């Protein structure tokens, strides 16, 4: 059975955390526009570099992200898509290049999201995710997986986190509403502990 999974959710909802687990469990690609853009922040495009948009919490222009996703999906035999589509035009583009087997929304309240974002730490080497309170590493500042240094993302300040939430409600809520109307959306309580969220996602996928 193929696994073409779309994981939707606000900034900090746990998309990256759960996508990593799904990629391991099912041997599928973790396709994430956020990580791809962070790895190419200073790439020259006709719209400028991704950096300026990302540091302001704004969306990077559609043609840039559409191209990233199209290339990644062309190579993938099964995927979990994280951070895309983020507006109705991206959703339209996606529908032209692939079908989906599951569309899952991680539901988390705003105040929880802000705490998650401002407390997040990521490994500078392997990208593993931590949280100073909710998912602390064994040694402060050091990655459990690879020993790399844990850093804070530029866009995880409280001010930029709140801006990202605004951008999400304005641009991405309509995408969620669309999948709700087509009857494809499955909503999961994203405030449960990570392993519990994962087991609920697995139930949806294997249903
Ligand atoms: P992106 O990297 O996609 O960021 P985001 O959508 O804002 O989401 P996050 O990565 O912040 O959160 P997440 O849901 O992955 O949560 P995580 O698992 O880390 O995008 C960044 C920027 O790139 C955008 O602002 C935009 O500029 C640009 N961009 C990207 N895609 C684009 C697109 N398609 N179009 C245009 N521009 C685009 O978890 C968060 C924290 O919570 C972690 O610390 C984690 O340890 C903790 N946590 C996770 N799950 C739990 C749990 N169950 N309980 C307790 N703590 C938990
Ligand atoms: Mg993420
Ligand atoms: Zn690491």
What does this structure look like?
With 207 residues, the protein is α/β, with parallel strands linked by helices. It has a domain at 4-28 and 77-109 and 158-206: Rossmann fold (3-Layer(aba) Sandwich). Helix content is 46%, strand content 16%. It contains eight helices and eight strands, in the order βαβαααβαβαβββαβα. It has a five-stranded parallel beta sheet with strand order 2-3-1-4-8, with helices on both faces. A hairpin with a 5-residue loop joins β5 and β6. α6 (110-119) packs across α7 (158-181). The radius of gyration is 16 Å and the shape is globular. It starts with a strand and ends with a helix. The mean pLDDT is 96. The structure holds BIS(adenosine)-5'-pentaphosphate (AP5), magnesium ion and zinc ion. Zinc ion (ZN) binds at residues 123, 125-126, 128, 143, 145-146, 148.
């Amino acid at each position: 059975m193929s696994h073409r999974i779309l994981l939707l959710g606000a900034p900090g909802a746990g998309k990256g955390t759960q996508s990593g687990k799904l990629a391991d469990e099912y041997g599928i690609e973790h396709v994430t526009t956020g990580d791809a853009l962070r790895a190419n922040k200073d790439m020259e495009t006709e719209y400028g570099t991704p950096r300026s948009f990302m540091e302001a919490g704004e969306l990077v222009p559609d043609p840039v992200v559409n191209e990233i996703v199209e290339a990644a999906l062309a190579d993938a035999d099964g995927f979990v898509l994280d951070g895309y589509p983020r507006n109705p035009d991206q959703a339209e583009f996606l529908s032209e290049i692939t079908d989906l087997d599951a569309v899952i929304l991680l539901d988390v309240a705003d105040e929880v999201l802000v705490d998650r974002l401002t407390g997040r730490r990521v490994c500078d080497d392997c990208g593993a995710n931590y949280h100073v309170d909710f998912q602390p590493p064994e040694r402060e500042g050091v990655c459990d997986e690879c020993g790399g240094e844990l850093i804070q993302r530029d866009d995880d300040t409280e001010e930029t986190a709140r801006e990202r939430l605004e951008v999400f409600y304005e641009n991405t809520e309509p995408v969620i509403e669309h999948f709700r109307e087509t009857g494809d959306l499955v909503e999961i309580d994203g405030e449960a502990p990570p392993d519990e969220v994962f087991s609920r996602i697995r139930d949806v996928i294997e249903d």
